[in-house]
Amino acid sequence: MSSEQPQSTGTAGAPDEVAPSGVDPRILEALRQYWGYETLRPHQREAIEAGLASRDSLIVMPTGGGKSLCYQIPPLIAGRLDVVVSPLISLMKDQVDGLRQSGYPAAAIHSSITSEEREALRDAIRDNRLRLLFVSPERLMTPTFLDFLGHQRVRAFSIDEAHCISQWGHDFRQEYRRLALLRDRFPDASIHAYTATATERVRKDIVEQAGLRNPKILVGTFDRPNLVYRIQPATDVFAQALETVKRHENEAAIVYCISRKDTEAMAGFLQENGVKAAAYHAGLEKSERALVQESFANETLDVVAATVAFGMGIDRSNVRCVIHAAMPKTIENYQQETGRAGRDGLEAECVLLFTYGDVMKWKRLIRLSAENAPDPEPIIATQEDLLKHMAGFCASAECRHLVLSRYFGQTYPKDNCGACDVCLDELDTMEGATEIAQKILSCVYRVGQSFGVSYVIEVLRGSRSQKVLERGHDQLSTHGLLREIHEKALRHLIFQLVDQGLLVQTQDDRPVLQLGEASPAVLRGEREVALTDPGPVDVKRTGRSADEWSGVDRKLFETLRGVRRDVAAERNVPAFIVLNDATLREMARMRPTTRESMARIPGVGKKKLTELGPRFIEAIRSDCEERGLAADVEVIVPPKRANPSPRPNAQRQRAFEMFDQGASIEAVAKETGRAESTICRYLEGWLEAKPRESLGPWVDQATYSQVMDAARELRADRLTPLYEALNGEVPYSTIRLVLAHARLQDESRGVHGDQRSRS
Ligand code: ADP
Ligand code: ZN
Predict the structure, then answer these.
(1) For a designed S-S bond to 410, which of 224, 354, 376, 405 qualifies (C-beta 3.0 to 4.6 A apart)?
(2) Which of 68, 48, 56 is nearest to 188 (CA)?
(3) pLDDT tens per residue across span 673-723
(4) Which H or E run includes 654?
């Protein structure tokens, strides 16, 4: 397994740069010509080589990892026709449209093409003008189609979403099973399976079911570094979803809901609040669904509130935000659904809103759906185990990236990801948690350990309902002790105690709360309790997000989006297929106004340069002139402030005091119990308040110069390329610190990043 990180964008180097040694120059040539990229991502090279050598392969990469290039490049170089099996027409259409925009000869055969189109297609195939043919498994396996392909001597089949072949996968499809016959029918052709599914069992099953022979197996890193994960108790899903969506105004978001009714209520609420939103679920008319998909792709619709079942059809690479309005059933589902965010490699946010009621709801559903199986117990046990992991993930306060990587059997290399609520220090620990816990525990005890959560809450909040009065529980000393805490918040606190084993919830039909083993110690005041505050969570802007936008002129970006929308409408294709967001941002950052500088923007290949270049150059030129913006920029633009308004926090306070005395990062970390990377961010905040000429006690001069030299040379301020350029010898946190210091220095000298330019 590799620990390499997929890069978020291609490098913006000159086209005549030396090829990274060892890569077949034909691969790089194709990469440049059709996609305008300079470098391959991890595993792409080996995957492409397997394709060229006609060796079977199984390629496992996370969503957005760049699987498609791996099967798109080999037939191009070999001058042959390869077949790609894909489960959904919408996915095929998007891919084919995208490829054609780049001048790549590809086509799809499906029910909605006309007979003339079909004729033209057959001709193109006979004349060997086509490189990729997309087809559904059903169509592929019909006798006539197999015969036809037999005559074409197809050398390679790629199976996209290959986990559909496995019944252990979360998305098993009967039609995929028949693909096993390909092996017999085309003994000389190689078979290449592609999937984002991470589990070992599914991988083994794919190899077996597809009959792969001595396959090259490549497994990428599952971590998605560009995703920021946040998990919050659902106190008011509508308000929380709205707030999250508003952080991504005019950008694409998906809100996953459990039921159809929920999707409609959510979409309605968002619409009332001025968001362009629509519901999407299986109960809609086919035409309605198509309309939603189309307007989402056209960017006339921003937010889709959807049930999970239909996520596959929603394909847009610049989804900036995925919200779960309820807890998914498994971590696999969560990974799959959040996988739809940030497929373009740019930052995106995933917010999971959960209540403990969700766990109960899933348990009921699991039992219900297993009821009719001949032997339901093992099925229930497996599913409940998966569910337990999901619930544990919600309740934990460990780095989200780390937990996800670990779940998929990979190690996570950083001690602070800088991209989750835990590492960003957003989780609030509650003041007076021990006292609150004591009140809850003693109430459970007073009501005789024989009532459920809701009733305990009623008593704690001082309800005078008939039930409470009849039992005389209004006379208890614990009656009304926590009336100031909202019911939902209280529920969340109680379940945190359950998670910590301080309370036990019985497993029968009417679960009641009982004291756990350690509760007496808490009640006697011998043990402290930590609880996270279920109140509204204060979300910070992440450093990562600032990085991705640094130097990008947002207004120009919006102007360019407009141009892209026009082109998309003229060509009748989705906007993100014309040019992706990473490319538009790079344009709004570098602001190329010549053909030469435009050619250096990653994502602008030859065809796009010729066809779209002039139009975008014109838009950039006039916008820059009008607004006095520097064009053809080639400077370092240091990251924006990481934490614009940090909240007071005891550890941070303490760290600041220690910085005043010149204490080392290590010493402060030890004293405050925080990770060193967190301390580095505190230090950034401290430097903002108290500017310093040098980073004296914290970063030595040699390292400082090394980082700045690399930053100048790369003309980059994004961390990953810098980290790599420094051979991984300088920690991320130090690089950040140096860049932040340099920015502060610049700012204090009155140099404004955006205005500096080469010319
Ligand atoms: P997957 O199929 O694994 O989900 P895609 O093939 O759709 O991922 O690729 C995701 C995005 O990454 C696309 O926008 C694609 O153009 C881009 N991409 C792929 N390979 C590279 C590369 N070598 N350099 C830069 N961008 C790339
Ligand atoms: Zn983290």
Answers:
(1) 405
(2) 56
(3) 776 767 877 888 788 777 788 888 888 888 888 888 888 777 655 666 677
(4) helix 650-660
User: Residue 444 has what pLDDT?
Assistant: 96
Cβ of 11 less than 6 Å from ligand 1: no
Return the CATH number at 283.
Answer: 3.40.50.300
In this structure, are 518 and 564 located in the same domain?
no
Number of Cβ atoms within 10 Å of the Cβ of 499: 15
What is the Å distance from ligand 1's center to 101 Cα? Answer: 15
Distance of alpha carbon 61 from alpha carbon 220, whole angstroms? 5
In a domain, 654, yes or no: yes
pTM: 0.65
The tokens 């009982």 sit on which residue? 514
Residue 672 has pLDDT above 90, yes or no: no
Q: Which of 68, 91, 94, 336 best tests ligand 1's pocket when mutated (most atoms within 8 Å of CB)?
A: 68
User: Looking at the structure, do residues 308 and 395 belong to the same domain, yes or no?
Assistant: yes
Last residue of a domain, one of 372, 407, 442: 407
Same domain as 313, residue 254: yes
Q: Which tokens go with 492? A: 């969340």
Same domain, 303 and 364: yes
Burial bucket for residue 373 (CB in 10 Å: 0-12, 13-18, 19+): exposed
List Cα–Cα distances, 50 to 156, 196, 223, 583, 675, in angstroms. Answer: 11, 18, 24, 29, 42
Residue 237 Cα to ligand 1 midpoint, Å, equals 33
Q: Which ligand ends up closest to the CA of 62? A: 1
335 lies in the same domain as 461:
no
The answer to whether 561 touches 578, Cβ cutoff 8 Å, is no
Please tell me the total count of domains within the chain: 5
Q: Which residue has the tokens 């760290």?
A: 655
Q: Quote the mean pLDDT of the chain.
A: 84
Q: Dihedral angle at the C-alpha atoms of 482, 486, 490, 491, nearest 10 degrees?
A: 140
Same domain, 458 and 380: no
Mean predicted confidence (pLDDT) in 604-620 = 94
The string of pLDDT tens digits covering residues 175-207 is 888 898 999 999 999 999 999 876 788 889 899
- Among 373, 407, 441, the domain boundary falls at 407
Q: Is 233 found in the same domain as 215?
A: no
- Closest-CA residue, ligand 1 atom 22, reads 40
**pLDDT bracket for residue 168 (50, 70, 90):** low
Pocket test for ligand 1, best of 101, 337, 343 (most atoms within 8 A of CB): 343
| Containing structural domain, residue 608 | 550-627
Domain identity same for 252 and 375? yes
For residue 644, the CA-to-ligand 2 centroid distance in Å is 19
pLDDT at 607 over 80: yes
- Specify whether the CB–CB gap between 529 and 732 falls below 8 A: no
